Amino acid sequence: MKVAVIAFPGSNCDDDVVQAVSDVLGCSVTKVWHRNRLDTEPDLIILPGGFSYGDYLRSGAMAARSPIMDDVRREVRRGRLVLGICNGFQVLTESGLLPGALLTNRHPGFLCRPCTVRVERTDSPFTGTFREGQVVNFPIAHNEGRYYLPPSDLEKLEKDGRVLFRYCNDRGETGDDFNPNGALNHIAGILSEEGNVLGLMPHPERSSDILLGCDDGILFWKSIQTWVERR
Amino acid sequence: MAVYRAFVTITLKKGVLDSQGKAVASSLHDMGYGKLEEVRVGRYVELALEAASHDEALTMTESICDDLLVNDLIEERRIEVVTGP
Fold it and tell me: Within 10 Å of residue A192's Cβ, how many Cβ atoms?
């Protein structure tokens, strides 16, 4: 399995993702600078977290217009997997590869802490080794994580089963008290229509080694690997 | 060709919760501005551009807004174009 991690100016989780994926899966992970082209035909492309372009204008707005995103679009059309984590999720919504927008958290302040999310379905390329409804700990670190989509579009997103992760408590219950940022419908992660693009606010790469306090992320990376190898 | 200056004000659409505006309003209430009803916090962008006419400068500004400055899903823009550098 080949993995490419795209780094923009201001990305700061690129090395964490490279280390987590290569440690857990033992596969080849290449970091690609956004000014270069994506020519390795990776099985998985990761847009990492951070503050691309200093979060100027809107989080992810400038990175979404970076030339390398044309390559990402091409790979999406080919059915390759694309994962945007945190700022990467913001880049995906800004580029139109995922619907919606990520707005400033409901309550003031940057949130950086452990966080529980519920796996909503296990038939996606990203969640095959989880149990449906499983609660996992993926830390969050963001100021703009409040997922927003106009009501009619949101209804369709839900109806199509494209919400893959939802904020919850440690028993898997959802509610405003367990929703860190005010995201509509407690949404933490969504799939594209074709199911091969995932945007996720929490950071599985920060949960991929027990030294960091939690290793639920291992199942996440293994899910992707299993899906790629079965293809 | 002449030089025009475009002033673009971008705010969240009505109906989209403006958490920055709410936080600022809350501080102002605490400071004694009890009659303050609402605060909306936005972004201001100034462009200098060359164009053959005022209309062309406006069209170019709209295009720049569509392509990058404004996310129509959540934001709205107000544009003012004036002559001169």
Answer: 16
In terms of residue numbers, what domain contains A217? 2-230
pLDDT < 70 stretches in chain A:
none
Closest to A104 (Cβ–Cβ): which among B19, B67, B68? B19
Contacts A–B by Cβ distance under 8 A: 36
What size, in residues, is chain A?
Answer: 231
**Is the sign of the CA dihedral A126, A132, A133, A134 positive or negative?**
negative
Mean pLDDT of all residues in B51-75: 98
> How close is the nearest chain A Cα to the Cα of B18, in Å?
8
Bridging pattern class, strands A163-167 and A187-191: antiparallel
pLDDT at A108: 87
How high is the pLDDT of residue A131?
A: 97
- Best interface-test mutation with A: which of B14, B26, B67, B73 has the largest number of A CBs within 10 A? B73
HEC per residue, A116-139: EEEECCCCCCCCCCCCCCCEEECC
Residue-level pLDDT at A231 = 84
A205 is catalytic: yes
- When divided into structural domains, chain A yields a total of 1
> How does pLDDT run across A182-224, given as a tens digit for each residue?
999 999 999 999 999 999 999 999 999 999 999 999 999 999 9
| C-beta atoms of A150 and B73 within 8 A | yes
Pairwise CA distance, residues A125 & A224, whole Å: 6
Residue (of A42, A44, A51) closest to A9 by Cα position: A51
| SS3 (DSSP) at B49 | strand
Q: Hey, what domains does chain B have and what are their CATH numbers?
A: 2-83 (3.30.1280.10)
Confidence of residue B73 (pLDDT cuts 50, 70, 90): very high
